[in-house]
Amino acid sequence: MQRSQDIMKQYKRIRELREDRDLTQAKMAHTLNITQRTYSRYENADSMMPLDILVKLADFHDVSTDYLLERTDIKKRYPREKEHE
């Protein structure tokens, strides 16, 4: 039961970020190249979100994945390391 509540709390941020930008679930789903139903299941914690979708959401909202997962309250993304030459 506790695990389910933790997951629901984590995905709350994903919904809040979407709503802050006045985007519909359908628009977010289109951006992520998934169906609206699939996106809705992720946002409502009915399905586990794959890592690639989590990363795409973090990139889209310009936040860290840790922020989306409520591991931090700091929205700022981590700097990307430059590729070695």
From TrEMBL:
Gene3D superfamilies: lambda repressor-like DNA-binding domains. The keyword DNA-binding applies. Keywords: DNA-binding. InterPro entries: Cro/C1-type_HTH, Lambda_DNA-bd_dom_sf. SMART domains: HTH_XRE. GO terms for molecular function: DNA binding. Residues 14-68 form the HTH cro/C1-type domain. It holds the Pfam family HTH_3. It comes from Marvinbryantia formatexigens DSM 14469. This is DNA-binding helix-turn-helix protein. PROSITE patterns: HTH_CROC1.
